[in-house]
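Before relying on records like the one below, remember that each one covers exactly one chain. Contacts with other chains, cofactors or solvent are not represented anywhere in the record.
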Amino acid sequence: MAEVMPVLFIVLIIAAIVIFGFGIFVAALKFLIVIGIILFVLAVIGWIVRNVRSRV
């Protein structure tokens, strides 16, 4: 399970960037900007928590 977590975070970051990009270029879907930011923040927080737990 430990090897799956970094891959999951990478996939979340890529998904966040793609959704963020769609949100910028499609005016009707501006709410995707917020979703992209939330996914990116969650992925970064998860990565930080994983690194802190592995060092303890």
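Residues 31-55 form the longest helix (25 residues).
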